[in-house]
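A.,

Following up on our hallway conversation. Structure tokens first:
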């Protein structure tokens, strides 16, 4: 079949993206689902910094590629051997297809799935093949999803069935923003009831972490960013204090608020200085966790002795440390109970044709979560 899709042909275009238009809306060929795969009619797809990192070249990917990894839709066709899903099921996509059999999957660490990572890096399906093409040439898949398209073929290992009453535009953000932000705090860093938390970088993932810290029972939640409107949003969501990281006294403010430093600092800006700030703001015996995707050449500096002398922990978090098929339904249940109001993170709803404007808005820091509706 044919489908309209947003295709990235070349990384590193000049800004503004609304003018250079790095994503071209084109018609591509989509082969039917192979064994263990399904055809999904996409209804919503979120714009994420991980997509932006592929556009600006910070996260190199093979091109041409149909981008989009945070998506939700409805299954309209089943491939051979698919018995755990049915036509008409509503699904959310996870951006790491978990094979379920490698040592990492067997250990409950789906984010580190070896075949899944290899497939994502190569721009292919978990099976190793491609279902996208154009004029006889192969087109690559983005993180097993390629959700910036009207239709996509997705492996069942990348899908989570969801309640049909959940709006697709809300459902989509659970596949990345919520999973990553909430998971970094509650799953990877194992925040305990009553701890103090600092969140650095208040995009969709960082503000999800703020909501996760609230749901998890943090005693203090300090939100830090350089954008006043995002600090205001964090306060409206329930952050107990906010700090502008451009202020030369920002670290001192945090230490004064917490009596020496936070129990847990989480960084989502994807900038080395932000991670250094989060580490410096962490108190004795505390944990610093990062889910920000740095440039491959980025380096950070920290006093190594502090790790031992203060019994500090520095952790990385990918996919929020989750098994999506187990954890996304739990987070959706929290949302439906009113305890994880992720709908408040949606600032813009777009059409596919407005995608370049959306990414310029994201790059400029003028949006939290934008969702394309099909």
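Then the amino acids I'd put at each of the 374 positions:
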């Amino acid at each position: 079949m044919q489908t309209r899709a947003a295709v990235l042909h070349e990384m590193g275009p000049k800004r503004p993206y609304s003018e250079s238009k790095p994503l071209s809306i084109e018609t591509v060929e989509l082969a039917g689902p192979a064994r263990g795969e399904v055809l999904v009619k996409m209804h919503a797809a979120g714009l994420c910094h991980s997509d932006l990192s592929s556009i600006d070249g910070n996260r190199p990917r093979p091109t041409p590629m149909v981008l989009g990894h945070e998506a939700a839709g409805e299954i309209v066709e089943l491939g051979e051997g698919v018995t755990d899903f049915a036509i008409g099921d509503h699904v959310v996509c996870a951006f790491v297809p978990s094979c379920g059999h490698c040592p990492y999957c067997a250990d409950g660490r789906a984010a580190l799935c070896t075949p899944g990572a290899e497939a994502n890096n190569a721009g292919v399906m978990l099976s190793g093949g491609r279902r996208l093409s154009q004029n006889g040439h192969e087109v690559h898949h983005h993180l097993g999803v390629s959700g910036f398209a009207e239709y996509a073929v997705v492996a069942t290992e990348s899908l989570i069935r969801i309640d049909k009453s959940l709006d697709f535009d809300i459902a989509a953000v659970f596949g990345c923003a919520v999973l990553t932000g909430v998971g970094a705090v509650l799953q990877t860093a194992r925040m305990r009831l009553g701890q103090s938390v600092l969140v650095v970088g208040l995009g969709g993932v960082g503000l999800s972490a703020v909501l996760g810290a609230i749901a998890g029972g943090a005693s203090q939640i300090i939100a830090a960013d350089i954008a006043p409107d995002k600090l205001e949003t964090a306060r409206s969501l329930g952050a107990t204090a906010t700090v502008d990281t451009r202020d030369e006294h920002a670290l001192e403010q945090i230490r004064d608020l917490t009596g020496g430093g936070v129990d847990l600092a989480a960084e989502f800006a994807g900038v080395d200085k932000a991670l250094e700030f989060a580490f410096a703001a962490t108190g004795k015996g505390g944990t610093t966790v990062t889910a920000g995707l740095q440039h491959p050449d980025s380096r950070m500096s920290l006093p190594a002795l502090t790790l031992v002398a203060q019994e500090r922990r520095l952790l990385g978090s990918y996919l929020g440390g989750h098994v999506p098929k187990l954890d996304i339904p739990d987070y959706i249940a929290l949302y439906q109970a009113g305890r994880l109001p992720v709908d408040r993170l949606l600032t813009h709803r777009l059409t596919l044709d407005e995608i370049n404007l959306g990414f310029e808005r994201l790059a400029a820091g003028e949006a939290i979560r934008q969702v394309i509706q099909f």
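The mean pLDDT is 96. Curious whether your intuition agrees with the design.

B.
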